[in-house]
Amino acid sequence: MEFHTGDLVTRSSYNNDILFRVVNIINKDTVILHGEDIRLEADATLDDLVKVEDRELETRRKKIKEKEDYSFRLFRQDYQLMKEKREYESTAGYHQPANYFQIPARVLHMDGDRLYLKKCIDLYQRIGLQVHGVHVNEKEMPNEIGSLVKKIQPDIIVITGHDAFSRNKGSKSDIRAYRHSRYFVETVREARKVVPNLDQLVIFAGACQSHFESLVRAGSNFASSPARINIHALDPVYIAAKIAFTPFMEKVGVYDALRNTLTGEKGLGGIETKGLLRTGMPYIEDQNDF
To answer: What's the rounded Cα separation, in Å, for the pair 95 and 164?
Structure first.
């Protein structure tokens, strides 16, 4: 069977468990694959690939969307509770119209996958977060992050794309055994040279199977992947949103940050971090200062 860039496929050797798209055909035998809904990059031989037919593709995408919609509903419930709490505190507990304004967090999202970036930006907008999205190849991220932080001055940075651990290259503790983890680590370090404080700049870094420990040591507040498993493409957005909508006088526990993700604690982890939402009063309708 002939394959082309953009084809949606599965791998026979892995029981056709993950839906991939072909992103590069290296030679007549080998291709590079990116997960369609998880942040995994993999090599495969052509004879291992199975092209996904339209009917099966529709079924797989329906299941993926059901998971994503469920996670979004959980987040909306969590957001509504946080909103009600802010309104209660802003009115000193009195039942009267809330007359406050909020200064939202700015998010810089660097993604090694252009399609995932678009999908994430759509979710940021649906949630109501300001985001500056940049598509950058993982290997180039360390060179780009410093100038972007100085230019955009974000409150939150998401550094993600694709990654993978290869047992053939070393042990799980050896960062050289990972496809892109070392570039994510270098990017975090460069960002921390500009803003060292963990509460002034919140960083999420990593993708599928990434070297979690190195990312946290480099200065990430949250990272993937503690159990070296795959993570969903939208997981970093939900972590960023939880931090962005939590008042700055409150801390976000790790479990609270992971609760609405699609992957959970095996794929994501981090350290407790202050929220970034600031609320002020009064809101003046005729002015656009805020």
So the answer is: 52
Question: Which tokens go with 13?
Answer: 């050797």
Q: What is the 3-state secondary structure (H, E, C) of the chain?
A: CCCCCCCEEEEHHHCCCCCEEEEEECCCCEEEEEECCECEEEEEEHHHEEECCHHHHHHHHHHHHHHHHHHHHHHHHHHHHHHHHHHHHHCCCCCCCCCCEEECCEEEEEECCHHHHHHHHHHHHHHCCEEEEEECCHHHHHHHHHHHHHHHCCCEEEEECCECECHHHCCCCCHHHECCHHHHHHHHHHHHHHCCCCCCCEEEECCCCCCHHHHHHHCCCEECCCCCCCCECCHHHHHHHHHHCCECCCEECHHHHHCCCCCCCCCCEECCEECCEEEECCCCCCCCCC
Structure tokens at 247: 């008042």
pTM for this entry: 0.82
Rounded to the nearest angstrom, the gap between the alpha carbon of residue 253 and the centroid of all alpha carbons in its chain is 18
In this structure, the strands spanning 278-280 and 222-223 are unpaired
> For the chain, what are the domain ranges?
8-52, 63-280
Average pLDDT over residues 187-193: 98
| pLDDT (mean) for 90-112 | 76
Top-confidence residue, 278 or 182: 182
pLDDT for residue 290: 43
Distance between first and last Cα of the chain: 58
As given in the structure block, the two tokens for residue 100 are 């406050």
Indicate if the alpha-carbon torsion angle 135, 136, 137, 142 is positive or negative: negative
Is pLDDT larger for residue 120 or for residue 17? 120
63-280 fold: Rossmann fold (3.40.50)
Which of the pair, 168 or 97, is modelled with greater confidence?
Answer: 168
